[in-house]
Every structure is written in structure tokens, then in C-alpha cells.
Design a protein that fits this description.
Number of strands: 13
Distance between the termini: 14 Å
CATH topology: Rossmann fold
Structural class: alpha/beta
Strand content: 25-35%
Helix content: 25-40%
Number of domains: 1
Number of helices: 6
CATH architecture: 3-Layer(aba) Sandwich
Strand order of the largest sheet: 2-1-3-4-13-12-11-8-9
Shape: globular
Radius of gyration: 15 Å
CATH class: Alpha Beta
Order of helices and strands: EHEHEHHEHEEEEEEEEEH
Length: about 200
């Protein structure tokens, strides 16, 4: 069973439906015992970084996420969920994240040719090897909606990148921790492949 963490964000049903399409049952929950008893855990997210972190703390879920990582349960952050894995974000001030991936979340500062938020289909360049992208072709298109991007301290954790005025990390892998800035649940067959690969992971 895959646990999808419920902390008040709005894309839970679409993530759950996408896992159902690739044959993996999931449970939307904010209950620690269900999250820690799952085979895999997903931290989805849309919205503001500070609000997301505040809600996680109020629900007592930050310690649960640290325990998920300690127990080596595969953890996937999606969009805001990936950003919250990082140390800090400069969205509306400086805010502390989970610090599971050392690095920061920065706002796009681009020329007028590039609109912010970065919204729509764009190409990704997966790293080799990658447990999430092993069978995803280079330059596949996925769907993005975000105004901030991640900047890991260690470039080795970057498992895919995208060009949007700058070359930025759009996916990370470190041990049992995974993250994607794009929305796999909205990314057609490529996104479903990424979710299937996550479902097939073994610790």
C-alpha cells in the first residue's frame, strides 16, 4: 500500500487516481500509524512553502517523515512536496524546510521572454542511472506549474534537469528519498511511467 500524506493540499485525488491507473493501491491519510505502516509514502503538494510546512508541523507529520526516511521507506515528494524536502525556501521570506536534502528553494529570476510561473509542458533530461527514470527517454515532456525551483548543495542528487531560462534540477534521488518538481499525475504516459517505477521500488 502507498500512503499519500493528507495535509490539506488539493491534488490528492489526482495522485491517487494516477497510482490506481498503474496498478498500485493507495491510501490518502494523515494518520502516523498508517503512514509508517505503508510500503511507500508520497508527499504531494500545491501552494505556498511556509503554509505547507506549518500544516505538516501542526499535524505532527514532520517527525513522521523523518521516521519514514530512517526506516528506509521509499518517499516521493511531488511539486511543493519535493521543495519541502529541502533545507530552506526564499518564498515570501526565508523559511525552514525538512532539511532531508541539503539545499535551497529559489524564485525564478528570468528575462521577459520567460513567464513566471513556469507553467505547461517542458522537456526533462534524466540522469543515468536513475531509479525513477530508467526507462524514460531523454527530452520527454512533462507538465510543470511552479514559480520556485530547487538548488541542491550536492549536484549528485539531481536525477533530472529542465531548461527554462536556466538549467534547474527538476527531480532528485538520495537513498530512499525521491522528488519531482513536475506533476506526474498530469504528465500523461511519461508521468505514469515515473509513478509505476516508484511503485516498483524495493528498499
Amino acid at each position: 500500500m502507498i500512503a499519500i500524506i493528507d495535509y490539506g493540499v488539493g491534488n490528492l485525488a489526482s495522485v491517487q487516481n494516477a497510482f490506481r491507473r498503474v496498478g498500485y493501491p493507495s491510501l490518502v491519510t494523515d494518520q502516523p500509524e498508517q503512514i509508517l505502516g505503508a510500503e511507500k509514502v508520497v508527499l504531494p503538494g500545491v501552494g505556498a512553502f511556509a503554509d505547507g510546512m506549518t500544516t505538516l508541523r501542526k499535524k505532527g507529520l514532520t517527525d513522521v517523515l523523518y521516521e519514514v526516511v530512517e526506516k528506509e521507506i521509499p518517499l516521493l515528494g511531488i511539486c511543493l512536496g519535493m521543495q519541502m524536502l529541502f533545507s530552506t525556501s526564499e518564498e515570501e521570506g526565508l523559511h525552514q524546510g525538512l532539511d532531508l536534502i541539503p539545499g535551497r528553494v529559489r524564485r525564478f529570476s528570468l528575462s521577459g521572454a520567460y513567464k513566471v510561473p513556469h507553467m505547461g509542458w517542458n522537456q526533462i533530461r534524466p540522469a543515468v542511472p536513475s531509479r525513477l527514470f530508467g526507462d524514460v527517454p531523454v527530452d520527454s515532456y512533462v507538465y510543470f506549474v511552479h514559480s520556485f525551483y530547487t538548488e541542491p548543495q550536492d549536484s549528485q542528487v539531481s536525477s533530472a534537469s529542465t531548461d527554462y531560462g536556466i538549467d534547474f534540477t527538476c527531480a532528485i534521488e538520495k537513498g530512499n528519498i525521491f522528488g519531482v518538481q513536475f506533476h506526474p499525475e498530469k504528465s500523461s504516459l511519461v508521468g505514469l511511467t515515473v509513478l509505476r517505477n516508484f511503485g516498483e521500488l524495493r528498499p
